[in-house]
Design a protein that fits this description.
about 10% strand, nine-stranded antiparallel sheet, 24 helices, alpha+beta, about 55% helix
Length: about 575
């Protein structure tokens, strides 16, 4: 091997180790790797910014902008209510919800699909008898599987197509992934339907009232209305909120001891842990109001989730000094219930914590982007205009145009973005502030390094070494070996990086063995998206981990049958289709 080939392999191995350690932000690792590649002479200087103009990056950017408009249209918020009315069996409710999530994920980013489905999850849990632990892990798996359906369903598919095109071959059309993706999804969902009652549903979780144990808890600070006469006691308000009053601050001093018959004054500052629906009813009735309020500009309220690597994860409200620095208030924190009696400012924020934010439009957008949060759903009374189904309809037209081969994905989706901007359905400035920039940075930085794997000859050298030790000319061995390799790497490294490293090798194996490069590259892309065994390999799994109060072993118990079913079906269909 030449020195440049050895260097690129060492560099990529170091990046894999850095990604897997989870000690550094993924986008920082990717940028550092690109800089190292340029310094070592592996990436030409004129190719440093080539990732920014790559069709894969542009398409992901356009999809994220469209998702911003879809989130504000609230077209998915009623799904949970419809499922709760149509289906009685909780397993059927979860399965149908997963099918909808998979379809949605087929035309947008996995994280975006997961986020858009969260309001439906909360509505379903509130109406039905679905404990929180039953729903989020299957939803995460469904969004990952749904991304396999189309070339725009997930970044690995776009990256795989890009590498084929740069190797002088035809890239993937929109529906080339459909036979493999749909059948692998069906196999994964059937495995979940069979195994869910034997894992998460068979651990003492009984069907509970959706207004109590099925929902997470809300921690917030409240005050009672001055019109509440006679003033309620602690026991009365606790019953109304379905929770507990942890402490009362009156005239700067904490009331102690706090007894059930203690009378609450309108000037008291109450730290409470409440049931979400009960709190919403009390707020709507005017019996209580939030203690914390932002007082500058036109106020907007929305909910956002703390993401992995967010600056807020493991921190507290007091540590961020939010109001003084950002003009944004955190009105409440929803998540796993913990024993806590301190001031609200010191509530620990975790990955998966749902924050209700209040502030002006610009401040909240900047806050979400800076702290790496994902917007869930806007409060209906926050003043946001509900724009209906127009964004969804226009998006569908763009997808159909791509499916029919009329225009390239980046052109069609660019037209959708332009239409939504011109018609006022998409506020481009607000969307850019809340965009998921880390995934775009990772893609832009890793694509030139992936090119270097091919241009230095490292991919050909690795393919030759594998061909000497494995019977890769036998198609099933090549397909299942690449599929298994991608599935083994992706739980520890983000899926885009997995494809960036393995796709050039798959292409070289195809050239060396006379097998279809498209088949082998698709095996890599599919394997990179089949991440079901750990809570940290994909952001959706991490969010599910935080929202559903899972243990690490829950991913192994439910994930192994989904992984096995997807592996066997995807590999078999690849061999038959190509």
């Amino acid at each position: 091997m030449t020195p440049s080939q050895i260097l690129i392999i060492i560099l990529l191995a170091g990046l894999l180790a850095a990604f897997a350690s989870d000690r550094f932000r993924a986008e920082n690792v990717a940028i550092a790797g690109l800089v190292a590649g340029v310094v070592l002479g592996l990436v030409p200087v004129h190719r440093i910014f080539s990732g920014l103009t790559n069709p894969a990056v542009i398409t992901v950017l356009e999809v994220l902008l469209i998702v911003h408009a879809l989130a504000r249209s609230h077209v998915f918020d009623r799904i949970g209510d419809v499922l709760g009315r149509r289906f009685i069996d909780p397993r059927m409710q979860i399965l149908v919800l997963c099918v909808i999530a998979a379809v949605l994920s087929s035309v947008m980013n996995n994280i975006a699909a997961f986020s858009l489905m969260l309001p439906a999850c909360f509505s379903l849990m509130a109406r039905g008898r679905v404990p929180v632990r039953w729903i989020f892990l299957p939803l995460s798996y469904a969004t990952l599987l749904g991304g396999l359906w189309t070339s725009i369903g997930t970044p690995p598919n776009l990256i795989a197509s890009t590498f084929l095109q740069r190797a002088g071959m035809q890239g993937f059309a929109l529906l080339d992934f459909a036979p493999v993706g749909i059948l692998a999804t069906a196999a994964g969902l059937l495995a979940m339907a069979f195994w869910l009652p034997r894992t998460l549903m068979d651990e003492g979780d009984s069907e509970t009232d959706g207004d109590t144990q099925s929902l997470s808890r809300v921690t917030t600070e409240l005050r009672i209305s001055v019109s509440e006469l006679p003033p309620p006691s602690v026991a009365t308000l606790q019953t109304r909120l379905g929770g507990r009053i942890h402490n009362i601050i009156r005239d700067g001093k904490r009331i102690f001891p706090l007894r059930p018959d203690t009378t609450i004054d309108a000037s008291d500052r109450l730290l409470v842990d409440a049931e979400p629906k009960a709190l919403d009813r009390a707020l709507a009735a005017g019996a209580v109001s939030y203690w914390r309020r932002a007082h500058t500009g036109e106020r907007r309220r929305l909910s956002a989730i703390v993401m992995p690597h967010s600056l807020l994860a493991g921190s507290s409200i007091a540590a961020q000094n939010l109001t003084d620095n950002t003009g944004v208030e955190i009105l409440q924190v929803e998540g796993e219930q913990v024993r806590y009696d301190g001031p609200f400012e010191e509530v620990a924020l975790r990955v998966g914590s749902i924050l209700l934010l209040e502030g002006d439009e610009a401040a909240i957008g900047a806050f979400i982007a800076y702290h790496d949060l994902v917007e869930v759903a806007e409060k209906p009374n926050s003043g946001t205009t509900v724009v209906g189904v127009i964004p969804l309809a226009v998006f569908a037209v763009g997808v159909v145009a791509v499916a029919c081969g009329l225009v390239a994905p980046e052109v069609a989706l660019g037209g959708v973005v332009a239409f939504l901007c011109l018609t006022g359905k998409l506020d481009i400035r607000s969307a850019l502030r809340t965009l998921n920039w880390p995934i775009l940075v990772i893609l832009s930085a890793m694509l030139p390094l992936g090119e270097a794997v091919g241009t230095t000859g490292a991919a050909a050298a690795i393919a030759s070494a594998l061909a000497d030790h494995l019977p890769l000319t036998f198609a099933p061995v090549a397909v299942f070996a690449l599929l298994a390799t991608a599935m083994a790497i992706t739980p520890f490294v983000n899926n885009a990086t997995t494809v960036t490293i393995l796709a050039p090798i798959a292409i070289e194996i195809g050239h060396a063995t006379q097998l279809s490069p498209q088949m082998l590259v698709m095996a890599v892309a599919v394997g990179a998206s089949c991440d079901f065994l750990t809570p940290f390999g994909h952001h959706n799994n991490t969010l599910a981990y935080g929202l559903g109060h899972y243990r690490f072993r829950d991913f192994l118990k439910l994930g192994w049958p989904v992984s096995l079913a997807s592996f066997l079906v995807a590999g078999s269909v690849l061999l038959l289709y190509w």
